[in-house]
Amino acid sequence: MRKRGSGTNFARYSLGDLTVVALRDGFVDMPPSRLRQLGDRPFGADLPAEIALVDGKLRLSVNAFLVIDRGEHILIDTGAADAWLPTMGLLLRALEEAGVARGDIGTVALTHTHEDHVNGLVAADGSDAFPNLDRLFVPQAELALFDREERLARFRRRRLPLGDGVRLSRAITSVQAVGHEVGHTAFEVASAGEILLIWGDVVHVPTIQFARPELTWELDADQDQARSARQGMLERAARPGSYVAGAHLDFPGIGAVSACEGGFRYSPL
Prior knowledge:
Radius of gyration: 17 Å
Order of helices and strands: EEEEEEEHEHEHEEEEHEHEEE
CATH superfamily: Ribonuclease Z/Hydroxyacylglutathione hydrolase-like
Number of strands: 17
Shape: globular
Largest sheet: 8 strands, mixed
Oligomer: single chain
Helix content: 10-25%
Number of helices: 5
Strand content: 35-45%
């Protein structure tokens, strides 16, 4: 996997004969208490030194990823648009910078239904962000959560249930990663012997959760399941020829994982 170009809000890579574009939607700041030790215990004065804070907060990048396969454009997650904080909502600008037309995107697949991953289906002006959207994959276990959002009501009849092992294209397969949310899903992208594992919220704080995958997130639907899913995803990502793309890894959010004593190490690509 190699980088082919970048701008302020995008980075383009080759993966075998595929193109992968990392897209920056922005960032969100969270209190350090969101990060939890075993037993659902927050850190206090003992916050590890390797965790950098910005004005006392954890700064989480918000990323989405576009896979282009023989002209087919498949977008994983959509960002938040104008539905949460003013520090987000850059996805459509990122696509423009990357030279990708909104109308080129025919498939959107969601890792889960939290607002910073799904609300970008609707642009800030109220229009469909992707006017030629043909397939919208939503994790099966989160269809009811999706349907609760009035902002997304226009998409209810178009959504397709997503389970484990679903082929989105010749190169992309869904991988169950339940824990952060009840249907949390990753996507394995494979071409020419290389694999990219695109995940949503498997890792929130990359400076510590690779080395200490037992640390969880206060907002995980099930912290034990999330811990188990993270361990499994990291083991999978540490295989030769594999890379990861994470929604909350520092932009552009793509790199390699290797096993080390007691945990794992992340190396941005």
